[in-house]
Amino acid sequence: MRYHHGNLKSNLINCAYEWIASNGIDNISLRKIAEIAEVSQTAPYRHFKSKEHLLAEVATLGFEKLSFEIDKNITTDNATDDLVRCGVTYIEFGLNNEHIIDLMFNYPIKKSEYPSLLESADTAFGLLLKRLKYLHDLSLIHISEPTRPRLIS
Question: 9-21: buried (b, 16+ CB within 10 Å) or exposed (e) per residue?
Fold first, then answer.
């Protein structure tokens, strides 16, 4: 075990993200993440009240990474191509991050208790919605008024 001088919270979130990406959500615990981060078993409790708090942060990071991937792949002035690229990026992210996607969309986190999680999910959805609205405004597609997905569990 070593004393951690850096940003322990961020390190724990990243360790949990990598562990979940490889192993899934089952059998994860704050103690397991402490072991991976090589810190004391009590160190994570200074930053997370419970496993759910850590998982909410990992899901937030997942939405942030998804948004980053979508945003970086939008490179043309052609809104239709951008929308297709957005969808392909979403699918590729899901295929390459199966366990993270499972955490983001299926794990029963009380999302209403984690504003940063809701905000990051809203940002990811907003990237898609922005492209749909742009195509709608150009009369290239017709959509009824899109609504935000209900992410509150």
Answer: eebbbbbbbebbb
What are the two backbone dihedrals, phi and then psi, of residue 66, each rounded to the nearest 5 degrees?
-60, -45
Distance CA 25, CA 142 (A): 39
Longest dimension (CA), the chain: 61
Q: Rounded to whole angstroms, how far apart are CA atoms 65 and 62? A: 5
Instruction: Summarize pLDDT for 15-45 with one digit per residue, the tens.
Output: 999 999 999 999 899 999 999 999 999 999 9
Q: Render pLDDT for 107-146 as a digit per residue (tens, 0 to 9).
A: 999 888 999 999 999 999 888 888 777 777 777 777 776 5
Q: What is the pTM assigned to this prediction?
A: 0.85
Asked whether the beta carbons of 126 and 82 are under 8 A apart, the reply is: no
